[in-house]
């Protein structure tokens, strides 16, 4: 679907989309705003094809569509799928929204078909033995080292981006910024950090702060969490 940004769309793109987040759907917060800020630095127009991996409320997908991009949004949760569709309607843009896990939906995405991949994946490290996340927890439980979904996002992005295409990926410093850059490098993508922020701990990180400190993810005196946006280009 092609969406050309109208004047009111451009104003909305600058101020951020109007987004509703019902219970059980990841609500836009600091990592979302950081990713939206990075989106402002990209040359996005009506010829841009984009995919949002793990769209949640659809905030980033809608923001890209407001800039004129043709956007596909993916999420494993039906509630997120319907929320993204609702938020697209509220903002007057078209999204193609699909439900499914990256392993399943990713196989239906054509290789080298997108100019832009954006993602705010679950990245909070999970304790060993923690059950597979269900419901809202799927938005933050990152598995071992916080990389259970993150590495799969990197691999999917490298496959579906056109040569010269761009990945914008936000995650916590807890799960290894250097590892992300090196992983993307092995996948043929030149990556670097383009933005970062220090933010107060959210309820999930705060709730497992002692464990994160004991495992070496956090210093004992840490009061904030570092977030980064990694930008990578496919060669």
Q: Based on Cα principal axes, name the global outline.
A: globular
Q: In the CATH hierarchy, what is the class?
A: Alpha Beta
The CATH homologous superfamily is called Vaccinia Virus protein VP39
Largest sheet: 7 strands, mixed
Describe the overall structure.
The protein has 235 residues and is α/β, with parallel strands linked by helices. It has one domain: Vaccinia Virus protein VP39 (Rossmann fold), CATH 3.40.50.150. Helix content is 32%, strand content 24%. It has nine helices and seven strands; from the N terminus they run H-H-E-H-E-H-E-H-E-H-E-H-E-H-H-E. The chain has helices at residues 7-15, 30-39, 59-66, 78-90, 102-105, 150-160, 177-186, 203-207, 209-214; strands at 49-53, 70-75, 95-99, 114-119, 161-172, 189-200, 224-234. It has a seven-stranded mixed beta sheet, sandwiched between helices. Helix 2 (30-39) packs parallel to helix 3 (59-66). It is globular and about 50 Å long. The chain starts with 6 loop residues before the first helix and ends with a strand.
């Amino acid at each position: 679907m092609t969406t050309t940004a109208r004047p009111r769309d451009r104003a909305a793109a600058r101020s951020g989309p109007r987004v509703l987040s019902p219970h059980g759907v990841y609500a836009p917060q600091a990592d979302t705003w950081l990713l939206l800020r990075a989106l402002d630095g990209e040359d996005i127009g009506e010829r841009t094809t984009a995919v949002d991996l793990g769209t949640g409320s659809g905030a980033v997908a809608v923001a890209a569509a407001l800039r004129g991009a043709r956007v596909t949004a993916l999420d494993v949760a039906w509630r997120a799928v319907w929320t993204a569709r609702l938020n697209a309607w509220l903002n007057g843009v078209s999204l193609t929204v699909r439900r499914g896990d990256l392993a399943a939906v990713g196989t239906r995405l054509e290789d080298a078909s997108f100019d832009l991949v954006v993602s705010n994946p679950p990245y909070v490290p999970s304790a060993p033995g923690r059950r597979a996340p269900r419901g809202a927890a799927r938005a933050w439980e990152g598995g071992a080292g916080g990389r259970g979904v993150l590495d799969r996002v990197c691999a999917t992005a490298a496959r579906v981006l056109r040569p010269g295409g761009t990945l914008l990926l936000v995650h916590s410093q807890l799960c290894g910024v250097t590892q992300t850059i090196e992983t993307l490098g092995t996948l043929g993508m030149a990556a670097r950090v383009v933005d970062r922020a220090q933010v107060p701990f959210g309820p999930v990180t705060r709730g497992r702060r002692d464990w994160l400190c004991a495992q070496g993810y956090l210093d004992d005196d840490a009061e904030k969490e570092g977030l980064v946006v990694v930008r990578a280009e496919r060669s």
